[in-house]
Amino acid sequence: MMRKADVVSESIIPDDQISFLKGKLGFLAVFSIFGLWVGLISSQSLMDLFIILTSFLSLLLLLKTKKGRLLNQISKPIYVSILWVLILLLGFYAQAEKGASVQVLLGDFVWILHLPLWFYLWHFLRVDVRWAYSALWILLIGSLFAVMVYFIGFDPLHQTWSDRAQNLSVFWRSGGLFSNAMALAQSYGPLAMILLPLSLFYLYRGIQAFSFWDSRKEKPKKKQEASKLLRQFFPSRLSWLLPLTFFLTSLAVVFTFTRGVWLAMTLSSLLGGFMLSRRWGFTFLFGFFIAGFVLMMAWPKFQERAFQVFNTEKSYDSERVVLWKTNWFIFKESPWLGIGYGENKRRLREFYDRLHVPEGQFEGHAHNQFLHFLAGTGLLGLLFYLGWCFYFLKINYQIYKRLEIESGVSRDASIANPTADATSTLTPVSVNKELSLFFLGLFLAQISFHIGSLTESNFIIAKNRMLLVGLWSFILYFYHSHSSKSSLSTT
Length: 491
What we know:
The protein is mainly alpha-helical. It has a domain at 73-119 and 150-320 and 361-481. The chain is built from 20 helices and no strands. Helix 2 runs antiparallel to helix 3 and helix 6 crosses helix 20 (462-481). The two termini are 16 Å apart. The model is unreliable at 1-22, 409-414, 416-429 and 484-491 (pLDDT under 50).
């Protein structure tokens, strides 16, 4: 069992300067972080409330502690983000026509203010393993609800049993607590990817421990055997809670029937497998092939959904292609600054008419985040977005590699030989190993999010966007707070 003293990350603020956080302000800090997490998992309104609360608390800490110099660590990203917004505003006022509202742009980009504030807040929180238990239980409950919604055939938050027959007469998809299948998949898919590497670690460690147990010549008494075997397989709460949460979260995504996220999770999982070792990569490849074949043969609904891309009568994929072509046409009209952020959605019918698209065609965002930026903000806006995403992938990867090296575990052995760590306490090496796998999961979550962007404008959806921004703030905090340390572990 992990002890209370086992810390995942430490604050770089001296104890005497954060002692006041042990009182009401400390409770408020932890409460706001977990409230935000619950909102990201379940409710837009709750998320908005705690976004305001966490940012207000960060401002309060900034004024009370006078540690604004911490923000100097991320001065370059702050300056780049300001330049990005200025260019978007320039493009908007230069290209947007009558009726356009800049509030859409400002509302979608207010996250640029929250990011440095959350980065600042992380410095005042001592993050230990107990946080993981609570966070996992919250995600597990959200995933379990999404799975339940699929099987009962109606959304109990917004529907009644009488709606079930109508739901089942069409292609029923679970929207979980979001009541929106696509938005749920775009958030829960990356969350599942965060858990994937550590789930493999704990499960493989349990299998190795079981093999060692089974190979022993002396057997204990039968009454003791079950409990001792269970303790060997699951030596800590995380060793069973994390894989279980990963399984249910992945299952929730499956029941959304969002093919773009299915593809994103598959490709990012393969990438993660090959980053661990070629053996794991090819194991994943073979496993996905077998799983896909079995699902296609045994589950008609899965097969129908997979092949809808080839059936325009039962799918809106053909309408999505029209959206892509139209947004590409919009980009060619204003290639450098676009026609104004959000205007490619508001003025879509105007461009449909120019392309002779008939009435009744679906109207909305571009269903491709990169095309959405390209049409609305031009090449300059897209390049800023791509550069921003690449920056966080880069520093995330650097953290992962540094932790992997400091754990003293070779690339091929990072998961394949975990039995040495199946102990009741954590060592600095084992902490770094698990941390490295956690940051590998964060890296894969971002990859999954960006692949999912090919079939959905997920960054303009607040729940999806703020989840990614929250991950960015923690990655940025960890990168800078440990950049000058020789070891990322704590004692």
